[in-house]
TrEMBL record:
Protein name, entry field: Histidine--tRNA ligase
GO cellular component, one term: cytoplasm
Record GO terms (molecular function): ATP binding; histidine-tRNA ligase activity
Quaternary structure note: Homodimer.
Keyword rRNA-binding included in the entry's annotation: no
The keyword Nucleotide-binding is assigned to this record: yes
Gene3D superfamilies: Anticodon-binding domain, Bira Bifunctional Protein, Domain 2
UniProt source species: Streptomyces benahoarensis
The family this protein is said to belong to: Belongs to the class-II aminoacyl-tRNA synthetase family.
Gene name per UniProt: hisS
EC number: 6.1.1.21
């Protein structure tokens, strides 16, 4: 062990387990790539103001959890705590929204950072795959994103997840509701912190998990009763489209999410096998965000799915992904001359696209065969001086133990044939 350890709240992805993470990223992005979403990558840090304005000054993410710092040049930056604000910033900066081809549909995959209290499923460095559809107000777009996330989870073999759905209203009806909710909350027995939250962002009080608060919330005005006709109609269409697509969801009037920018459709994917950190993904519509960060009006919708928690959900359901072994062929040279000859064969096999590894470090036969078995390879190529004198190598099937001599110039073809 070295003197150093991974920082608190982080962990390393190591083989063979790390292959599952790659497969999860692949599975989440596949439906997006298949639906007109283009890949975008943005820096790991941004101007801190982008998140303060975009995510919201009063949110936990901005007030407590952001890794913010000042550079030697005096810039105030923050490690990105989420993806949407950065993606929208990048799209606006590159004028992707101009030229009439809306919505701009983008997907991303990367690391995010929040200074949270670490526990299982909650880390300070975590990984998300996300999607944003920028510049269109269309219930079919909201439905599309929810359907694609559902498809992604199902393609991984997950079954025990639920989709929670709500509408947060728009700039017409939300302020009316907000005022009514504030009136109600100001009559409750709340601590100073929560009272401040009532002033700044009362909807988030509905999301308070403490029993002392929860029990006082019975009878709170419901947002659903305040939605304007346009929001109601919009939400109804989203629901109809999901139902028509066979995607089941639950209406959850308390789903407000922890970010300020959401309007209308909000949704969360929760998994019942994960304990308290049950949200595996979430998202919604953010019609006002572009204007909040200095852009034009661009109604948009998006989601981010957590890779770490999706892996935990797979474990909770006992799903093992069918990941092919990294190595198909393992070469074992016996002696100096065999090393040279087999190394050339290894290079040729790799060029032919066959995943091949080599017993490095002058291992003896026994140790080398152990490594071959551990690598998951189906075939071993073994050669000693006598084989080379005859111009052959031994091709050993590691499953059946069967062994055949193959002429040196036929190795690639024979390996390909045997692997099928
Ligand atoms: P949010 O932007 O908070 O809705 O996060 C979207 C998804 O990212 C969540 O549903 C989680 O799966 C994942 N996520 C958020 N924060 C963390 C964290 N601290 N550790 C692990 N995963 C997280």
């Amino acid at each position: 062990m070295s003197t150093f350890q991974a920082p608190k709240g982080t962990y390393d992805l190591l083989p063979p387990h790390s292959a599952t993470y790659l497969a999860v990223r692949e599975a989440i992005s596949a439906p997006l790539r298949n639906s007109g979403y283009g890949y975008i990558e943005t820096p790991g840090f941004e101007n801190v103001e982008l998140f303060a304005r975009g995510v919201g000054e009063s949110t936990d993410i901005v007030t407590k959890e952001m890794y913010a710092f000042e550079t030697k040049g005096g810039d105030r930056l923050a490690l990105r705590p989420e993806g949407t604000a950065s993606v929208l910033r990048a799209a606006l900066e590159a004028n992707l929204h101009k030229g009439g081809n809306l919505p701009v549909k983008l997907w991303y995959s990367g690391s995010y950072y929040r200074y949270e209290r670490p526990q299982k499923g909650r880390y300070r460095h975590f990984s998300q795959v996300g999607a944003e559809a920028i510049g269109a107000e269309d219930p079919a777009l909201d439905a599309e994103l929810i359907i694609l996330a559902d498809q992604a989870y199902r393609s991984l073999g997950l079954r025990n997840f639920r989709i929670l759905l709500n509408s947060l209203g728009d700039k017409e009806c939300r302020p009316v509701y907000r005022a009514a909710l504030q009136d109600f909350l100001r009559g409750l027995d709340l601590d100073d912190d929560t009272r401040r939250r009532v002033d700044i962002n009362p909807l988030r009080v509905l999301d308070d998990k403490r029993e002392s608060v929860r029990k006082q919330l019975t009878g709170a005005p419901a947002l659903g009763d305040y939605l304007c006709e346009a929001c109601k109609a919009y939400h109804e269409q989203v629901r109809e489209l999901l139902t028509a697509a066979g995607v089941a969801f639950e209406n959850d009037a308390n789903l407000v999410r922890g970010l300020d920018y959401y309007t209308r459709t909000t949704f969360e994917f929760v998994h019942d096998g994960l304990g308290s950190q049950s949200a595996v993904g979430g998202g919604g519509r953010y019609d006002g965000l572009s204007e909040m960060i200095g852009g034009p009006a661009l109604p948009s919708v998006g989601w981010a799915l957590g890779v770490d928690r999706t892996v935990l959900a797979l474990e909770a359901e006992g799903v093992t992904l069918d990941i092919p072994a990294a190595t198909a062929v393992y070469a074992v040279p016996l002696g100096e001359e065999a090393r040279r000859v087999l190394f050339a064969q290894v290079t040729a096999l790799r060029k032919a696209g066959i995943a091949t590894d080599f017993a490095f470090g002058g291992k003896g036969l026994k140790n080398a065969m152990k490594s071959a078995n551990r690598s998951g390879a189906r075939l071993a190529l073994v050669a000693g001086e006598r084989d080379l004198a005859e111009g052959v190598v031994q091709l050993k099937n590691l499953e059946s133990g069967e062994q055949t001599a193959v002429p040196l110039d036929a190795v690639v073809d024979e390996v390909r044939r045997t692997l099928g």
